[in-house]
What does this fold into?
Amino acid sequence: MKVVILAGGLGTRLSEETKLIPKPMVEIGGKPILWHIMKIYSHYGFNDFIILTGYKSHIIKDYFVNYYQQYSDITVDMRNNSVEIHKTQTEPWKVTILYTGQDTMTGSRIKKAQSYIGNEPFLLTYGDGVADVNINELISKHKEAKKTVTMTAVQPRGRFGALVIKGENMITSFMEKPEGEESWVNGGFFVCEPKVFDYIPEGDDTIFEKAPLENLAKDHQLNAYKHSGFWKPMDTLREKNELTELWQTDKAPWAVWQTKKGN
It folds into this structure.
């Protein structure tokens, strides 16, 4: 199953960092948050990634093209223009990087990846949030529900639009500006059937979180996987600093691939 990551936005609320680099490349403890997200999926055996880029796409491409040498010990012999690699840290990843347009909306970015995803279920998430979601359990619940899309629902504090969940974890509608802390919101970490593409028209203007998800909810095809564990987006410098502190103090709940920072 392929993992699709939305990594093309401008990140305007994190402008202190994103003037020079795209938001998914903002570092948490010396590694881009995109790397952290990929490590979560890789821990569960999902290593085939499709990254949907836009703003400053070349920086993401350069990172993966040069990944092998970035994390290797090397000797550069400038007399004969040779490079000797001594020790390396690598990942079992296959990474497809698609430039989906500078100003393309989230749904349209996903639509542009359809031919690369193929006619099979896929995993989908945002390139700016981490969580300790059990991906295997998420997929299992998706299969049990037999819906087109399963969304990970979380309960953060404030500022997010809430979901209305009824019965057997079926999302029926969205609410703006939840009043309490008990509201469930979109936490990303989706599982999608290929039928989801029927809900996304051609073009660059479709916001995935608007008509596609709203229509899936109306058709009773949007399932919720309730995650009560750790989840945090990186929308502001404050949130970036909070994530960095968790990482540096060995208290990063999303680092399910390791027991100690730096392993």
Observations:
- The first helix runs from residue 15 to 18.
- The mean pLDDT is 88.
- The chain has nine helices and 16 strands.
